[in-house]
Amino acid sequence: xxVTIITQAIRFGIVFLYGSTGEILIEKAGHLNLGIPGIxxxxxxxxxMGAYWAFRGGAPAAVVVLLAVFMAMLFGGLGGLLYGVFTIxxxxxxxxxxxxxxxxxxxxxxxxxxxMGDQGILFARPSSYAFTPSLFFGSSTxxxxxxxxxxxxxxxxxxxIVFAVLVSLVLKKTxxxxxxxxxxxxxxxxxxAGIPVVRYKYVSCILGAAIAGVGGAFYLLDCTRGxxxxxxxxxxxxxxxxxxxxxxxxxxxxxxxxIFGFLYILPRYIEGVxxxxxxxxxxxxxxxTALVLIVISFFNKKxxxxxxxxxxxxxxxxx
Amino acid sequence: MERGDWPVYRRSPAYFRKYGxxxxxxxxxxxxxxxxxxxxxxxxxxxxxxxxxxxxxLSVLGENGSGKTTLMNMIAGIYTPDSGKIIxxxxxxxxxxxxxxxxxxxxxxxxxxxxxxxxxxxxxILLGExxxxxxxxxxxxxxxxxxxxxxxxxxxxxxxxxxxxxxxxDPACRAMRKELxxxxxxxxxxxxxxxLVKCGKHIQFNHLARDRVKKLQGxxxxxxxxxxxTRKIYDMSVSEKQTVEIIKVLYRGADILILDEPTAVLTPQxxxxxxxxxxxxxxxxxxxIIITHKLNEVMAISDxxxxxxxxxxxxxxxxxxxxxxxxxxxxxxxKIDLNIKRDLPKDPRPRLQIRDMxxxxxxxxxxxxxxxxxxxGGEILGIAGISGNGQKExxxxxxxxxxxSEGDIIFHNPKKDRxxxxxxxxxxxxxxxxxxxxxxxPNGDRVDLTNRNNKEIVRLVNEEQILFYEDEIxxxxxxxxxxxxxxxxxxxxxxxxxxxMGLVGSMSIVDNMMLRSYRKGNxxxxxxxxxxxxxxxxxxxxxxxxxSDLVPVRRLSGGNVQKxxxxxxxxxxxxxxxxxxxxxxxxxxxxxxxxxxLNDQKDRNVAVVYVGEDLDVLLAxxxxxxxxxxGHVSGIVDARKVTKKExxxxxxxxxxxxxxxxYEDLKREETDNGQ
Lengths: 319, 675
Fold this sequence. Notes:
The structure holds two protein chains of two kinds.
Chain A: H1 2-28, H2 36-56, H3 61-89, H4 94-119, H5 124-131, H6 134-137, H7 145-151, H8 155-173, H9 175-185, H10 187-192, H11 197-223, H12 232-245, H13 250-269, H14 275-281, H15 284-299
Chain B: H1 13-19, E1 27-38, E2 42-53, E3 57-61, H2 68-76, E4 83-88, E5 91-93, H3 98-103, E6 106-109, H4 121-126, H5 136-163, H6 171-192, H7 194-206, H8 212-222, H9 238-251, E7 256-260, H10 268-283, E8 287-292, H11 295-301, E9 304-309, E10 312-318, H12 324-332, E11 350-360, E12 366-376, E13 380-384, H13 391-399, E14 405-413, H14 427-435, E15 439-440, H15 454-462, E16 467-468, E17 472-475, H16 481-486, E18 491-494, H17 498-502, H18 509-514, H19 529-541, H20 558-571, E19 576-580, H21 588-603, E20 607-611, H22 615-621, E21 624-629, E22 632-638, H23 644-652, H24 664-674
Parallel strand pairs in B: 3-8, 3-9, 6-7, 7-8, 13-20, 13-21, 18-19, 19-20
Antiparallel strand pairs in B: 1-2, 1-4, 4-5, 9-10, 11-12, 11-14, 14-17, 15-16, 21-22
Helix pairs in contact in B: 5-6, 19-20, 20-21
């Protein structure tokens, strides 16, 4: 029982991890992208399409997964590009742009999903390539608690962790990360230091959205095993909350995603509780985020604050 | 004067060692006909032509809004000129961004430091550094040359060895084979894995090594800076931040340094330190532009002075061949009457009495320590002191903005023989005060309201029949600014930080006027008519330069922002007016406008408190000067008699016997009362 819960927690946590890793990348460039839920929906559409095409073409398992990831990143990236054009070049309000992108993404998923349903296209079989562990470890692994928790997942789970570690390393250990953080903290200083601020902002918006897009695809292909569910935007909001919970650090967000995943699936495994009470229990992750916000405001350390120019547009000749 | 006539004696020995005695004076930067406009109305630079020679310090002098910073920003790539040419070291260039400026070895140190607070000094210096030019082709060629020949040699040697019947397993051959393998590998990598090598180089460059501080230490030591590079910027003082900015520019290899008002935020000792660093850099052959409007600094540091006025280039002169007066004339275009009007205070009476006031700041340090003094109506009380000695906290404490303040602040509302109104007192309060004997009728009888009904009282008040018997005395201790306002105490405060504490930067002038009046009236909609009228009056009377009254105030230049703020504060006809550094960053004409406004208020019997940094202004404008040193009062002196030297001494040390100057009238009154 415990093992099952932990395994499921990891699986659902990875959805949040993708979303929050992408959002961290975007927020570090000073952009508050509330369109992450919508971008995850778009990524879900792209991922399912990619997997379906490759599967119908009779491609091997690796290609099916790769094409799914590629398409998810493409769709997510396009959403990020849209967001970037509006907020970086046209300097629109970031919150409004993000929220409309969320509405747009959820709408696209709903429209496309219904179309697929009408045509009777199912994604259960293509998605099996994504969630079968055999792609990674082979089927000969022994069956004990360790392998169940750590090795029974599809390849996308590990990809999510790789993304998170990579983003964390780049942000912390490289000049690119230093420049990106500078752009988010003080774009005027970054600009004066010769950093191409606009390029950094665009790249991080697109790349972050692409990573978040894989999260949507992962949810549809792995967590729901190919059945189209329209709750991705709810997952997206949790991913945004996870960014705050993990104090804008994607290495902490690996742990945070597990906690969020655990809290998210916990109500399903509690017995003797009515359905209504289970709905109430779903509030726990948000409450935990609020608690973290309260706790960090007590310490008032500059390092645990959001990037200083988060949400503010930057224009060089503005005085 | 021709360029060749540049006086040789002003150069340092190091300069001559580098360039020789008879060199042509090279130009580092030449600007020809630069024009830049913001929008359609504000022309910041009009057809400016100037030049900077190599190895000199050039001062760019001008009033506020004369386009100094804009001009320099165009050299640094922050702005791009609308027309005109920029020539760097003899070549015409287009500087579109700060990166272009770096590529031409131009570095600018901005007035508002461009540093990331959260990073360490070292990271700020490294920020944005570009990878040194690295060509895979060159690298390949180098490896080929180094190993290709060796490989060929070894191969032929091997062949010889085998042909001459040598065994392939003897030690000599084995060693040879090892060498050959190494050479083959190297040449193979050089020719077939270019992208890999390049990636490797990029990763190597991109990696933030732990010993990055050590690498930077060289630059720090060379110019004799004293700074810990591992500290975070938000922990640093202003002068340290400036040092980081200078190191950053030097580390990038800039030969042309532009400093935008570097001394505005420094103490005299720090300025001297900065100047010695600048001289050292000049002696190493660097060309330096320093923007300033302090004439004594221009005379002290620069080789030449370039004067701008209203966006136009007036003249560039040798510092040695000019003087401060001439420069002032060029800068303002007309002779200014340096005498500030000053009348004797008329009937000075204590308006605010501050007794044993102490303020503890956020860090728990006592910044104002048991300060006692009076502020009289009809005088200008100057507050002098080195910045950061409690001036700001003292004023904020009086205005009710400091949470942790102790002591009494007693306000004398000059109400004697003036009618009471419902504007600040309600019926209940008036009744209570009448019972305590606060009022009298115009004929001198004491007011007794016990037998009168409310209607009658209202009628009496409206007919102005009830007058105050004495000045009203109110204790302001522990009151918020709003409470003070609601008590009917007209206390105006012009804070040091105009755009954050005084005005809302993104709101228009009209809306900023409304900040003081929006609570008035009973309508749920705000009344914009009166604020608009007031805004237009201020724009007209104080000559605020603005396209319209709906422009966000942060778009205005510093002087105009200050005029708007002071104008608003004066418009409420205050009883006490406190101004902190009102002319900081303002040009001379705007400064005089402010001085005249303060004098007007003094004539109206307002108690004016003026916190300033320029001792000459304090001595010329104020009636009395209070000197603060480390949060203590080190003396209150007569501004007409005290000398600059005495003030300077009091600013640095608290004397054993603190002098307290008082007006003769008040002194006489006090002794009369004593008898």
